[in-house]
């Protein structure tokens, strides 16, 4: 079975600072990994995903994540935070054998002016 | 860009009433899903549907829930007798392939059971 752990339910960074949201996963088979963003009162938007190939994945809005198998991690980063990045971020895992996506509990990102 | 749509955006119902949440998946997609998110909690898988039958369901998806694709375009989630704890945001998703390839999520229906 797959699972996802997101460290930190709330993260605050200053505008212009580095964003780092941590995600560790557990999977008995090669995982597919995702980051979704949810703005207040809105649905889920895919930021980026890893399935196979290059382990550094670039997504929308300047975000990227690196799949590190040895660390079972898929941390999300952005070099310079913007006020518009304030939202809830969900790490998620699936596989090519599963129908479902398993989500982490989410990290709420606060941007300080 | 094609997108998944859901109606209604908000629904308020009395406990014990039946509700039907509707979704229009992306037109060439074959796999359909429902997830829910109780306020302040994580998104949870409910059910997946392919070839007019349920392919997987979670333990949340008990006999009070059912899904249907009545007309080849809509995909519905029915809750037969709503409980207070069914209050949540319900997301529909669809995908063109099986497995964890990208599922496209709709904007959600916020259900409030009083």
Shape of chain A: globular
Using DSSP, what is the number of strands of chain B?
11
Count of individual helical segments of chain B: 0
Provide the structure class of chain A.
mainly beta
Low-confidence stretches of chain B: none
Biggest sheet of chain B, open or closed, and with what strands and sense?
Answer: 7 strands, mixed
Mean pLDDT of chain B: 92
* SSE arrangement of chain B, N to C: EEEEEEEEEEE
Q: Beta-strand level of the residues of chain A, as a percent range?
A: over 45%
3D structure, described in words:
The complex is a heterodimer of chains A (113) and B (114). With 113 residues, chain A is mostly beta strands. Chain A is 0% helix and 55% strand. Chain A is built from no helices and eleven strands. In chain A, the strands form two sheets. In chain A, strands 2, 4, 5, 9, 10 and 11 form a six-stranded mixed β-sheet that branches. Chain B is mostly beta strands. Chain B contains no helices and eleven strands. Chain B is globular. The chains are: A mainly beta (113), B mainly beta (114).
Summarize the structure.
The complex is a heterodimer of chains A (113) and B (114). Chain A has strands at residues 3-7, 10-14, 19-26, 32-38, 44-50, 56-58, 64-68, 73-78, 87-94, 102-103, 107-112.
What is the fold's blueprint, element by element?
The complex is a heterodimer of chains A (113) and B (114).
Chain A lengths: L2 E5 L2 E5 L4 E8 L5 E7 L5 E7 L5 E3 L5 E5 L4 E6 L8 E8 L7 E2 L3 E6 L1
Parallel strand pairs in A: 2-11
Antiparallel strand pairs in A: 1-3, 3-8, 4-5, 4-9, 6-7, 7-8, 9-10, 9-11
Chain B lengths: L4 E3 L2 E4 L5 E6 L6 E7 L5 E8 L2 E5 L7 E4 L6 E5 L8 E8 L8 E2 L3 E5 L1
Parallel strand pairs in B: 2-11
Antiparallel strand pairs in B: 1-3, 3-8, 4-5, 4-9, 5-6, 7-8, 9-10, 9-11
